[in-house]
Amino acid sequence: MNNLRFPLLGLAMLMVAGCGSDPLRRVDALAQTPAPLETPISTARQVLADAPVCCDAIKAFPFQPIPANFSADVTLDASAPAYRFDSGKSFFRAFELPRESKSFEIRLYSQAGDTVLAPSVMLLDGQLRMTRLLDADDFVYVPAEGLKGDSLDARLRIDRTYLDNSGNERYLVLFAADADGQTVLQHPAKAYAKALGNEPPSIPDPVAQHSPVGVIKMVLIEDKAAGQQANSYVPAYSTGREMGNELPSIRAPAVLPETQAYYRQGIDAALASKDLERALRLADEATRVGDAGAKAYLLERIEIK
User: Fold this and answer.
1) Of 33-47, 190-204, 225-239, which gets the smallest average pLDDT?
2) What is the Cα–Cα distance from 154 to 121, expressed in whole angstroms?
């Protein structure tokens, strides 16, 4: 029955939604399920336990340069290096982000099947100091829709307004945040009923156990607005001491209008879809990057509604 999940749901949602779905969020539902999603949890954990630690420090990570139009499935399994993070040992993939591009958004979709990898994302500046750390709580379960399967999703923005700033976020590391939990998925029969406007059947939802191996689709999308200029802008750091790195005390600059607009549009979209949890996370992140009025804006929008 599990093998029918994506094709059945894909047909149902295509009949209802037509071709209006975001193509960047689509995963070929008819393709073979990636091997990491079929690996038994016990086997995956043993493979991780047996994997050698690749590096003594983050600065020794094998960072792979990626272009501004990057879009690909990133596999975390025995083919990836392993490292002992503060949260525990994990397979990881490390990327050098585009430096000369416009500001851009990164969209991440951790694909779910019998298992799912609950991701963590580490962002670092040009001196390999950590600027942000996203964990499993920053990823939201999104049920299968159209040709996109079940996944744990997150979106973040990388600022490239001032290209000559060494404090820009230059590197991204993907690894596992939680290999012991689980995610309850929406049963395909319920999704099919909803797509047809019917009452969903009262049946148990499948559960995807969190695994140390998995597949994450990563998509970079450049801002449409043109133009950057040189300046001394330095992004605000969200924390003081993480991963053994002492971060300097830097006064947060005034938030850029483009950044403020990005987060407030995201808050509006989250509220429009009745996703208060995402709206709160966006308000928190906006506050960390210098938008002191983000939480007040969220409260105002809630009161208006």
Assistant:
1) 225-239
2) 10
